[in-house]
Amino acid sequence: MEQDRWTRWLLEGRFGGDAEYAKEYLARLREVRDAVLDHRLKLVDGATLLDVGAGDGLIGFGALERMSQGGRVVFSDISRPLLERCRSVAARMGLGDRCDFVEAPAEDLGPIAGETVDVVTTRSVLIYVGDKAAAFREFHRVLKPDGRISLFEPINRYGLDAWRYDVAPVLDLAQRLRDFYRRLQPVDSDPMLDFDEHDLVAHCEAAGFIDIHLALHIFVRSATPQPWDRAISIPGNPNIPSPRDAMARVFSAEEAARYEAHVRPQVEAGRGVVREAVAYLAAMKPERPSAPPVEEASR
Ligand SMILES: C[S@@+](CC[C@H](N)C(=O)[O-])C[C@H]1O[C@@H](n2cnc3c(N)ncnc32)[C@H](O)[C@@H]1O
């Protein structure tokens, strides 16, 4: 299969080449998938669901499984190789005639006609989208009146300034590593960091949705023990180098050894605190456009 950045990330990069870890990771993702598909959705047999940024089909195939008596899924993504992968999985499962595959960005779902889908889902896609307001307008456009969206996004701004491990004795090095990543993904302009849960709600409402519900989950938990090699092989996301590559660029050999001597035992023992936030948002496209504000209506 042809590979691109997204295929490499979804099929390999995020697992760091560790099959056991991949299994645990995918089990956690299935929980997220179920939460997205359960969040105030009417996923009835015969419905058409559009999964935006479908990736390797986590949500789309989950939806087909639930609509066992019929129903369609439109897989859309900017990655042609991932769409081709979903197409061949669907064919292998005998589901090809219930699927469509559309190459389009979330901000411009042009090939999908207005008011043609019952449900729009998306997971961890808006974090890569610069114009999130446009994406919400597109979700609204393609939905039939009374249709619903359900999405999940990490809120990466949360806990950004905290340190996961005790880096006090190597603070100079930890700060340089952090500065390196911040130059690649500036907090105020990078699509992964420049929004929070309030922005999601505001974009959703501005696009014309109603019955908006956002659940913010914040986790402050002990770090899980991890093999050092795996921990430094996995980039935080597909747009940045792994810690191993970043350290090679930022540190001298002596500095890398000093950093590793201090941080590695903590990583391997799980002696750290992880702070994460994620948002689940559900909303409805009203049957009729919401009434204009009173001043406008009386003009
Ligand atoms: C982290 S993956 C999530 C994949 C899938 N939604 C899942 O839950 O496993 C992000 C996906 O978003 C897609 N993507 C990135 N930018 C996009 C954009 N502007 N519009 C649509 N999809 C995009 C990528 O190709 C990739 O498949």
Which architecture name of the largest domain does CATH use?
3-Layer(aba) Sandwich
Span of the ends, CA to CA:
59 Å
Largest sheet: 7 strands, mixed
| Poorly predicted tracts of residues | none
Strand order in space, largest sheet: 3-2-1-4-5-7-6
Question: In brief, what are we looking at here?
Answer:
By secondary structure, this protein is α/β, with parallel strands linked by helices. The protein is built from 11 helices and 7 strands.
List the helices and strands and how they pair.
Elements: H1 5-11, H2 19-38, E1 48-52, H3 58-66, E2 72-77, H4 80-92, E3 99-103, E4 117-123, H5 132-142, E5 143-154, H6 171-184, H7 197-206, E6 210-222, H8 228-233, H9 243-250, H10 253-269, E7 273-284, H11 294-298
Parallel strand pairs: 1-2, 1-4, 2-3, 4-5
Antiparallel strand pairs: 5-7, 6-7
The structure holds S-adenosylmethionine (SAM).
S-adenosylmethionine is lined by residues 6, 10, 52-55, 58-59, 77-79, 82, 105-106, 123-125, 128-129.
Walkthrough of the structure:
The protein is an alpha/beta fold and 299 residues long. The protein folds into 2 domains: 1-153 and 195-216 and 278-287, Vaccinia Virus protein VP39 (Rossmann fold); 156-190 and 224-271, no CATH class. The chain has helices at 5-11, 19-38, 58-66, 80-92, 132-142, 171-184, 197-206, 228-233, 243-250, 253-269, 294-298, and strands spanning 48-52, 72-77, 99-103, 117-123, 143-154, 210-222, 273-284. Strand 4, helix 5 (132-142) and strand 5 (143-154) form a beta-alpha-beta unit. Helix 2 crosses helix 3. The site of S-adenosylmethionine has 19 residues, from helix 1 and helix 3.
